[in-house]
Design goal:
The complex is a heterotrimer. By secondary structure, chain A is of the alpha/beta class. Helix content of chain A is about 65%, strand content about 5%. Among the domains of chain A are: about 1-160, 3-Layer(aba) Sandwich (Rossmann fold); about 180-270, Orthogonal Bundle (Helix Hairpins), CATH 1.10.287.1770; about 535-585. Chain A has helices at about 15-25, 65-75, 95-105, 115-120, 130-135, 150-160, 180-190, 195-200, 205-210, 215-220, 225-245, 250-270, 280-285, 290-330, 335-355, 355-375, 375-390, 395-400, 405-415, 420-430, 435-450, 450-480, 500-535, 540-555, 560-580, 585-600, 610-620, 625-635, 650-655, 660-675, 680-690, 690-720; strands at about 1-10, 25-30, 40-45, 50-55, 85-90, 110-115, 140, 490. In chain A, strands 2-3-4-1-5-6-7 form a 7-stranded mixed beta sheet, sandwiched between helices. Chain A is elongated and about 100 Å long. Chain A starts with a strand and ends with a helix. The relative contact order of chain A is 0.07. Chain B has one domain. In chain B, about 55% of the residues lie in helices and about 0% in strands. Chain B has 1 helix and no strands. Chain B is rod-shaped and about 40 Å long. Chain C has a single domain, classed as SH3 type barrels, CATH 2.30.30.90. Chain C contains 2 helices and 6 strands, in the order ββαβββαβ. Chain C has a 6-stranded antiparallel beta sheet with strand order 1-6-2-3-4-5. The longest helix of chain C has 8 residues, at about 30-35. The radius of gyration of chain C is 11 Å and the shape is globular. Classes of the chains: A alpha/beta, B mainly alpha, C mainly beta. At the A-C interface, helix 3, helix 12, helix 17 and strand 8 of A face helix 1 and strand 5 of C.
């Protein structure tokens, strides 16, 4: 026999830590169907029973406005739930009890966990547990989630409840006062005319929601055959209550609920010490008028440095591992299509991204840690004004900042934004931020066409351009596509807490594996397709393969010293690949598409081979890191500089042979910044925004905006007199 | 040699199919499908 | 001593205390504010403003909350000494 327990509670009440403590490693993270809301479920065994626990998103209420609240409300009302476990933050009891009043109205047995009792005691709050139990009508277990205190008692209680052996769950509901109770009863009568409606949720709960003017409730009623009767009664109730009690239904109900909560807290808890808490003292510094922002910037810099420096070690291992794999495959497998697919397509494409996984994981771990301490709320608080200018929420700052490392986890990080509109806009706008892969492209190109100092300026300008565009696009999207009042910024600033390290590590691992699945499937598929486009038909040309083999044998027969032989073989390889790539489908596509790009890449029609740039850009669709290596193949020049030289052969080739000028090179960089993000990003957009439609939109607007701005760059440059 | 071509061709077709299938599932289910990328198509699994 | 004048919450400065008179906002923000404790008669204190001037941090019902200026403008309060 098993029991399904739903964990409900405010955000920041330690619910997830409790969930982890109850279910240990045996839990599964997925999505609620149809929405991008995380669903965590797990189980534990106690006294021979299997108890399943579902962790709901933290909510302040079940009024069902945001996706989180809706999901929670629907699940809690569903027959699947046998018991509701309400987690209360002991140091914030009154507000937490608001949700409790709603949970009690759902008609299911409710048990309570009083979490963070240590925090409360430190503030001088002592709670009378038996009194609390009596007033709430359900058992209350005190716990300190992050020190795993109280967990065994909790498990034992849940098992007892599961076996139906306890009568400790009575049904308590808030008394809304004579007038409102009267109207509720009348509404319930009308609701009960429809048996289906009556069975789908407790009539009293529905009646309360109707009085609160809840849109979802009205919709549900609208579909019932008793809709007419119910609406009439509702109108009468409003007409009676508002003038009589002086406020609308929502206000009156909120007041009664808080009245209940307030009264209850007064009965069972001693008042809080008003002295300065550690949180207040920390905040005096962290949200200080002048120090707040520099500290924030400093913390971000620290997080970044940590991720990239610590992450470099495994990054290098993985890069070496892939290189070894690639060499092995190249040397041991017989030359042919599959070998080429692996060595030239899949391995470079996939490794370019996987090499990032350690860095991503550390970055996400740091962000999760900061989130759990409560600092992220302060960051949003500090940055909100700036974000508001962009038409966004303060919490949007984090994804934008993370985007400068890699767009993929940045988009994942957008999950913390509650409003679906703000979240979507943030997701669509983040790819405009210059990621580190694009940085590699900038470095090579800027280094070729500009002096080191100017190159640095250009690269910095690119970053600012990205941010500036993000602001503009954010505003535009907000006004064009998502107009209407922006969602409330109302945001709690929770007390600072030291997170459980285990929880942070679990979090880190989860996010990292999601990123890995991205690279695993979508990029593999994409790399394969791009390989096909850029190697076919040349790769199937037996004559060329044979020629190449002959040339290799000729060099090997010469028995030259190792280094020289190596160089020659490399040169041969480059020539062979170059021949294949430059006659491939991608090349033909490049030639067809070239006229469209000509205004930005070749305004004077002087470049016979401008179409080669298109091949590199197409490769960039898979991962921007590949753009440089693809250019190396196309131009038949290595991307690594020889000893003592500043420019690599590729850079020399770009400067001398490609026909690009500093201006068109700049246009190329602008285009690379904007055109379309890499496949990993597209896949993540699809996942977080919920459909390929938005991913497609990103590609299209990227191409259009990229082209436009690159064109403006060239036009402006010429107007100013640069060639 | 022909084994190589066979394997390479299957990989390419699978890749193309993968994208098309996900897009199709997505269009069919409205914007409700976010399962494809979280590792598993719901059409294949139960929900 | 409580003054009888109702002013928008956005007019309060850091350190000021107030008592909520009415939430004038409509729509989702209204419900959200009510749920977070902005009911008639509740006491609150303005803690500080963000470094860039907006939003403001308040203490209400024993916890800290941040509100944008245009949101707090829709809440009428009495100033309380």
């Amino acid at each position: 026999m098993s029991l399904t327990i739903a964990l409900a509670g405010n955000p920041n009440c330690g619910k997830t830590t409790l969930f982890n403590a109850l279910t240990g490693a045996r839990h599964h993270v997925g999505n609620w169907p149809g929405v991008t809301v995380e669903r965590r479920s797990g189980s534990f065994e106690q006294d021979g029973l299997t108890l399943e626990v579902v962790d709901l998103p933290g909510t302040y209420s079940l009024a069902a406005r945001s996706a989180d609240e809706r999901v929670a409300a629907q699940f809690l009302a569903s027959p699947e739930v046998d018991l509701v476990l309400n987690v209360l933050d002991a140091s914030n009891l009154e507000r937490n009890l608001y949700l409790s009043t709603q949970l009690l109205e759902l008609g299911k047995p409710v048990a309570f966990v009083l979490n963070m009792v240590d925090d409360a005691e430190n503030r001088g709050v002592r709670i009378d547990l038996p009194a609390l139990e009596m007033l709430l009508g359900g058992p209350v277990i005190p716990t300190v989630g992050n020190r795993e205190q109280g967990i065994p008692e909790l498990k034992a209680l849940l098992a007892t409840l599961g076996r139906g052996e306890s009568t400790r769950c009575r049904r308590i509901t808030v008394d809304y006062g004579h007038d409102i109770e009267g109207e509720l009863a009348k509404l319930e009568t009308e609701i009960c005319r429809d048996e289906q409606l009556e069975a789908s949720m407790p009539p009293r709960w529905l009646a309360l929601q109707l009085l609160e003017n809840n849109a979802d409730a009205k919709r549900v009623v609208g579909e019932s055959h008793a809709a007419e009767a119910i609406s009439q009664q509702l109108a009468k109730s409003f007409a009676f209550l508002e003038p009589h009690l002086g406020a609308d239904g929502a206000t009156l109900i909120a007041e009664r609920r808080y009245g209940f909560a307030h009264g209850l807290v007064k009965e069972v808890a001693t008042a809080q010490d008003d002295r300065r808490t550690p949180t207040a003292r920390l905040d005096a510094l962290l949200t200080h008028r002048w120090l707040g922002i520099p500290i924030f910037v400093g913390i971000l810099a620290l997080v970044y440095s940590l991720s990239f420096i610590l992450g470099k070690i495994p990054q290098d291992w993985i890069a070496e591992g892939f290189k070894a794999l690639s060499d092995f495959a190249g040397a041991r497998l017989p030359a042919g299509e599959l070998t080429s697919l692996l060595v030239d397509g899949v391995i470079p494409g996939v490794s370019a991204v996987i090499v990032f996984v350690p860095v991503i994981m550390i970055l996400m771990g740091c962000i999760a840690f900061l989130e759990d301490t409560g600092y992220m709320a302060r960051a949003a608080f500090i940055m909100d004004r700036l974000m508001h200018v962009m038409g966004l929420h303060g919490k949007s700052f984090i994804p934008l900042i993370m985007g400068s490392g890699c767009n993929v986890p940045a988009i994942q990080a957008a999950r913390t934004i509650e409003s679906p509109q703000d979240r979507l806009i943030t997701i669509l706008v983040t790819p405009l931020v210059s990621c580190s892969a694009r940085l590699q492209v900038y470095i090579v190109i800027a280094g070729t066409f500009f002096t080191p100092f100017k190159a640095a300026l250009v690269i910095i300008a690119m970053h600012f351009l990205g941010l500036g565009l993000a602001v503009l696009m954010g505003r535009m999207l907000r006004s064009v596509l998502f107009s209407g009042p922006s969602s409330p910024f109302v945001m709690e600033l929770p007390p600072y807490r030291l997170p459980v390290l285990k929880a942070t590590l679990i979090h880190m691992w989860e996010k990292g594996s999601i990123f890995l699945t991205r690279a695993g499937t979508t990029i593999f598929a994409g790399a394969t397709l791009i390989w096909f486009l850029s190697r076919y038909p040349g790769i199937a040309n037996r004559e060329w393969t044979a020629q190449y083999q002959d040339q290799r044998q000729a060099v090997q027969a010469l028995k030259l010293p190792a280094a020289e032989a190596e160089d020659r073989l490399k040169a041969l390889q480059l020539a062979h690949e170059s021949r294949i790539v430059n006659t491939s489908l991608a090349a033909r596509l490049g030639q067809k598409v070239e006229p469209v790009l000509r205004p930005i890449l070749d305004p004077d029609h002087k470049r016979a081979e401008a179409w080669k740039d298109v091949i590199a850009l197409t490769a960039g669709f898979v991962a921007k890191e590949i753009v440089v290596s693809t250019m190396a193949v196309i131009h038949q020049a290595s991307e690594e500089p020889k000893e003592g030289e500043r420019l690599s052969p590729l850079q020399v080739a770009l400067r001398d042979n490609s026909g690009l000028s500093p201006l068109t090179a700049l246009a190329f960089m602008v285009f690379t910044l904007i055109y379309t993000p890499c496949l990993g990003t597209i896949a993540m957009i699809r996942r977080e925004a919920g459909s390929w439609g938005w991913a497609g939109f990103t590609i299209v607007y990227g191409l259009v905006l990229g082209w436009g701005l690159a064109w403006v760059t060239v036009a402006a440059g010429r107007a100013l007199g640069f060639a | 040699m022909s084994l190589q071509i066979l394997l390479a061709a299957s990989a390419v077709s699978w890749s193309a199919f993968y994208f098309l299938r996900c897009a199709y599932q997505d269009l069919k289910a409205g914007s409700a499908c976010s399962h494809c990328s979280s590792g598993g198509c719901p059409a294949a699994k139960r929900r | 001593m409580t003054q009888n004048l109702s002013i928008p919450l956005s007019d309060l400065q850091p350190g000021d205390q107030g008592e909520v008179v009415q939430v004038k906002a409509q729509g989702p923000i209204r419900q959200r504010l009510l749920e977070m404790g902005f009911i008639r008669g509740v006491r609150l204190r303005v803690e500080k403003l963000a470094p860039l001037g907006d939003p403001m941090e308040l203490v209400i019902k024993g916890y800290h909350l941040s509100l944008r200026r245009d949101e707090s403008a829709c809440i009428l309060v009495h100033r309380v000494a």
